[in-house]
Amino acid sequence: MQWHPSRWLCGLLCTVAAAAAFAAPPDTTYTVKPGDMLQVSVWKEPELQAPVLVQPDGKFSFPLAGQLDANGKTVAQLQKEIGVRLAHFISDPVVTVSLTQINGNKVYVLGQVQKPGSFVVNPSVDVMQAISMAGGTTPFAALGSIKILRRMAGGSQEALPFNYNDVAHGKDLEQNVILQAGDVVVVP
């Protein structure tokens, strides 16, 4: 068989497409958290364009729309809710809400890591990535006894076990969970 550039290009594109499909992250929709910064604007209404900080209780205020609860809502849901509220005052409002700063999605890494502290993360950070953000573990870390502390909806906490060595060697990868806002990774 003779080498042909178009056959090579087709093979390359098929390989890249298959790799991209395999590597695509799961479809997760970010919900707004306290501390996030939103930009809200209403088309043709310059006085209704403002940055909005989501307060610690998950609420924020916007002119004419009043106080809104952002807890557990996506940007699209908030955009729709503001539009419905403004429709009482403005004919067919065109509302745009965008997330300008993700400050509410914090995780905490403490214990035997190089740089313990809180980290603002994108919505899809797992335990290994969080430990890496904290500069990795110290030589004194008990790598088989790491715990992820997670606050549940009712206020109780659960402790998820994490064995660094297993995950580093490709074993029990399901314990390398995606962290949720407020999770605490404890490296004893």
Describe what you observe in this structure.
With 188 residues, the protein is of the alpha+beta class. The chain has 2 domains: 37-101, wza like domain (wza like fold, 2-Layer Sandwich); 106-187, Roll (Outer membrane lipoprotein wza fold like), CATH 3.10.560. Helix content is 23%, strand content 30%. The protein is built from 4 helices and 10 strands; from the N terminus they run αββββαβββαββαβ. The strands form 3 sheets. Strands 7-6-10-8-9 form a 5-stranded mixed beta sheet, with helices on one face. It has a 3-stranded antiparallel beta sheet with strand order 2-1-5, with helices on one face. Strand 6 (106-111) and strand 7 (117-120) form a beta hairpin. The protein is elongated, with a radius of gyration of 22 Å. The chain starts with a helix and ends with a strand. Residues 3-27 have low confidence and may be disordered.
Features:
188 residues, alpha+beta, wza like fold, five-stranded mixed beta sheet, disordered N terminus
Short précis:
By secondary structure, this protein is an alpha+beta fold.
Order of helices and strands: HEEEEHEEEHEEHE
Number of domains: 2
CATH class value of the largest domain? Alpha Beta
Main sheet makeup: 5 strands, mixed
Mean pLDDT: 86
Which SSEs are present, and which pair or pack?
Elements: H1 5-23, E1 37-42, E2 45-53, E3 59-62, E4 66-69, H2 75-86, E5 95-101, E6 106-111, E7 117-120, H3 127-133, E8 146-151, E9 157-162, H4 164-168, E10 184-187
